[in-house]
Amino acid sequence: MCGAPKQGGTLAGIDLSTQTVIQGQVWHDGAPVAGAYVRLLDATDEFTAEVVTSPEGEFRFFAAPGQWKLRSLAPVGRGERVVEAEVGLTETTVVLE
Amino acid sequence: MSRNDVLVTADWAQEHLGQPGIVFVEVDEDTSAYDGGHLEGAVKLDWKQDLQDPLRRDFVDKSAFEALLSSRGIANDDTVVLYGGNNNWFAAYAYWYFKLYGHQDVKLVDGGRKKWELDGRPLSKDAVERPATQYTAQDPDLSIRAFRDEVVASIGSKNIIDVRSPDEFSGKILAPAHLPQEQAQKGGHVPTAKNIPWSKAANEDGTFKSDEQLEALYAEQGFDDSKATIAYCRIGERSSHTWFVLRELLGKEDVKNYDGSWVEYGSLVGVPIEK
Description:
The complex is a heterodimer.
Chain A: E1 20-28, E2 31-32, E3 37-41, E4 47-52, E5 58-63, E6 66-74, E7 77-85, E8 88-95
Parallel strand pairs in A: 1-8
Antiparallel strand pairs in A: 1-2, 1-5, 3-4, 3-6, 6-7
Chain B: H1 3-6, E1 7-8, H2 10-16, E2 22-28, H3 32-35, E3 43-46, H4 62-71, E4 79-83, H5 89-100, E5 106-109, H6 112-118, H7 148-153, E6 159-162, H8 166-169, E7 194-195, H9 211-220, E8 229-232, H10 238-249, E9 255-257, H11 261-265
Parallel strand pairs in B: 1-5, 2-3, 2-4, 4-5, 6-7, 6-8, 8-9
Helix pairs in contact in B: 5-10
């Protein structure tokens, strides 16, 4: 379904031999940011998905191998991070400024 | 129908909270968002629990819709103001659904939850109780809903708009990337469909672009005003967003939402697919 599932939590049940998982946390001022909006943009900067971070500031996407951009927006600021993902787990942090 | 009849700003919404004759309705798939804080006085609709048949893949029928709205305290002459998460995807779906069952006065809050939260506007955790009504729905208006056979028959003749992301359109991924990529259906798109992602119609804060920007967007992508239009996505909610843009904001004639969308089309035996 298209509604964003709960963010964060265990990777149990996710097959990392087939899925390309991009996950991480949004930070600002030395602390994780809950309720931040995080977008996954494709290589042409087009929207692919968006989630809202968990109380621990976590987000998770299921993508495909390649280059992706994470863009986060929250009342305290915005931030971006480009990642190169392979099949399996790619972890990153987006810092809001 | 114009933008002012169907779309309200967050400011307007905040000023009209609690006003008699106006019912705010939050629509999400994950209603924990509502439970964590909602517009003061807003009732909630769960996209799945409330709006989908529990057994078959279809809407709830007319009598179930009547029972649902009656229980939420929504009357036929109320102005229903919808908003939600996911850039208003499910709120736009509910808008289309309310129109399908003939509700007269429906509006969307521009930007939905996202803009509301980014603006730091107040949210309430108070339980909302409204006295029950006796809601009467109309028969479904099928002039705004497309089914699979019509989609196949429209290949090469109507505007078919695939509003998914480019990577879903190309078959690189099978679902929006916040979901696991394990699906039964084939990857790709309906032949002759144009890929005009829903997101191109929205600003980053979830609000809709201006009418001028929207007209230019569809014109650039080869949208033909002389043809009827079918929009689809994966399960019909993002295409409701585009249906809202084309029919309600821009006033295009004969626009249908194919809510079966790729989950259905990509599983059909024998239909043509392009990749």
